[in-house]
Amino acid sequence: MTITLDSIRKNQKVKVVSFSGGWGIRQRLGCLGIHPGDIITVKRSAIMRGPILISVHGNQVALGRGVARKVVVEAE
Amino acid sequence: MKIALMGQPNSGKSTVFNDVAGYKAITSNFPGKTVKYTLTKFNLLGQTIELVDLPGTYSLTSFDLAELEARKYLLKGNVDVVINVIDASLLSRSLELTLQLLELKLPMVICLNMIDEADRKGIKINIEKLSKILGIPVVPTIALKGKGVKKLFSMACKIGEEKRIGKTLNFSKDVEDVVTQLSIQIKKKQISQEFNVTERFLAIKYLENDSYYMENFEKRDKDIFKDIIHFQNQLSETHGRQSDVVISSERHHLSMNIYESVVLLTRPHTSLIDYLDNILMHPFLGYISLGLIFYLFFNLIFSAGKMVEEPLLDYFYRLIPLIEKSINPNTLSFSIINGIIQGLAGGIAIVLPYLFPFLFGLAILEDLGYLPRIAFLLDAFLHKIGLHGKAIIPFILGYGCTVPAIMATRILESERDRFIASVLATMIPCAARMTIIFALVAFYISPQAALAIYILNIIVIVISGKILSRLLPEITPGMILEIPAYHIPSIKVALAKTWLRMKEFIFIAWPLLIAGSTVLSLLQYFKADNYINQLFSPLTFSLLGLPIVVGTTLIFGILRKELSMLMLIQAIGTSNVAAVMSTTQIMTFTIFIIFYVPCVATIAVLWKEIGSKRTLFTIAFTSILAIILATITRFVY
């Protein structure tokens, strides 16, 4: 079963499956080291449906909710 | 020899640059602070080197204006050597840009920066092996401490003379075949020359669907268009994902392979600073700390400034009666001398005492890496005014000076976001306006009243943001922002940065202040100020209930906002403002000054960044806002 990144709980590890966004968002995520097949950990999420903080390849990236919704993941 | 510093955001390019140039380029711990390039010339072993510090770019596919600028500069083709600055603690991701740079076939050297940070994270890099794989020299550095920088530049010169270029690293076979086939077609058509890039580079960019290169190819040649689409489809069919994802994944795997073969992972050393996020980014404590940090910051500036302002002002105002004794106050020369002294006193006693602690504190927060954390905390709130978290960075810089704040809006992706953020940034009280708030309101009324102005200002900005985003109903692209590791700020660097920003005041604004107060003295001497004041009296006197003499100060305030305060003191003829103006009048005056027409420097940068029409809109919008708010203040406060 696949789910999107915005619904992942804190401290959970997931594997990126695909991106449902357009060219721009795919490229920008790729630049920050987020590609299909990568393992990412959700570190925290901000209140009021704010962004989530993920850790990928030892680096921290903040993703807005809207962006996180476009990242399809599966539980590790 | 011309050398360009190229690398991902926040890898330390500007720090390397400053090592040889002196502190000329602003450095901070957040991605994307360099938005335009800075040049310097220096001598190395008898050779003149021209060094350019380019904005950071994650890849050679460009999204924002700053990245586009970096790529354009590099492809202009007059760079002799590229220094690819890499944050060693983020090696695998950084190599993805390195691979693209190698495809440009330019002489190149790698600067493996922040090697100490990598050590701390337990990343041990086999430098010789990395150099062998890429076919170019790799020099480890700690730019913040100046370590390895000399060696880096002598290596860069050597490579530049030899014109040595690195290896091309191949993708997996099926992808490589597609790239090669497309390259052959491109070579036949000879279209890569006009872009000044290699066929292989162009082929990869086409497969990645890069909008810059794709834009006008359709008109040029139908055949090549068909080829590109054909190969893009072939890649996406065989891999089951879009061709641009195929290429970026290939590059990613290649980088990971290199990373794994040159890195030995050991136990990371954790320090207290790694736990800071448990408080500063906590869903509850994070906001408490944010409020507390800014409250303390505010108090610190006020108490430090006040301590210096009082004795200095006293000193200067004892000076004028002394001069009156020796020169007749009704002569022209006294007017001029009086004007100059007022201008000098304003700079030393009123502006600098508040400017220095503010800029120093801001530098410390920037270097620590706190700004991206604020973007994370406030993203949800900024969405309410139609922007996203990254917009907080220009806003915070706006408390320093509006000009760099507007330049910093370049980190935002959409034009609409840049416009809204620019308009709102002009309303944020910059350091110049801060000195007015502190020296008039906090000094004569109370610190609480000054704090209230800041809070009111934020409320007005939120409402204006809501109005603007209503007028331009477009959904902001979501936030994607790297949150860099904390760095313990270096006092030396923070002081250098403070000095660089203060220089702007000392050498540009201050002479203007002195000239301005001299002009006012002359106007008063020739009684010309009365005409100007009369002209403005419907606004200043009738509507806002201010003393008639403030008319001239408002015109001069457009040159520099501090000027209006210094001239106010001069125009009312006493340094004790409270003796002439009521608290309501001081409040009304300050509110009006904060919001009305941005200063000349801001108008110039707005004109360049958002165009003439939108600049005129901003001027009208802020003026109307200032009149409304100041009128309300008059009757309510």
Summary keywords:
heterodimer, A: 76 residues, alpha+beta, SH3 type barrels, six-stranded antiparallel beta sheet, 6 strands, B: 637 residues, alpha/beta, Rossmann fold, Helix Hairpins, six-stranded mixed beta sheet, two-stranded antiparallel sheet
Describe the structure.
The complex is a heterodimer of chains A (76) and B (637). Chain A has 76 residues and is of the alpha+beta class. Chain A contains two helices and six strands, in the order ββαβββαβ. Chain A has helices at residues 23-31, 65-68; strands spanning 3-4, 13-19, 39-45, 52-56, 59-63, 71-75. The longest helix of chain A is centred in the middle third of the chain and has 9 residues, at 23-31. Chain A is globular and about 30 Å long. Chain B has 637 residues and is an alpha/beta fold. Chain B has helices at 13-21, 65-75, 91-102, 115-120, 127-134, 149-162, 173-189, 192-195, 199-207, 211-214, 217-220, 222-239, 243-262, 277-280, 285-326, 332-368, 370-384, 392-398, 402-408, 415-427, 431-444, 447-471, 491-525, 529-543, 550-557, 561-572, 577-580, 583-595, 600-610, 612-636, and strands at 2-7, 38-44, 47-53, 81-87, 108-113, 123-125, 138-140, 263-265, 480-483.
Short description:
The complex is a heterodimer of chains A (76) and B (637). Chain A has two helices and six strands.
Give the proportion of residues in helices of chain A. 10-25%
Largest sheet of chain A: 6 strands, antiparallel
Beta strands of chain A, count: 6
Tally of domains of chain A = 1
User: Which stretches of chain A are poorly predicted, pLDDT < 50 over at least 5 residues?
Assistant: none
Rg of chain B is 28 Å
Please state how the strands of the largest beta sheet of chain A are arranged side by side: 1-6-2-3-4-5
Number of continuous helical runs of chain B: 30
Shape of chain A: globular
- What is the fold-level CATH name, i.e. the topology of chain A? SH3 type barrels
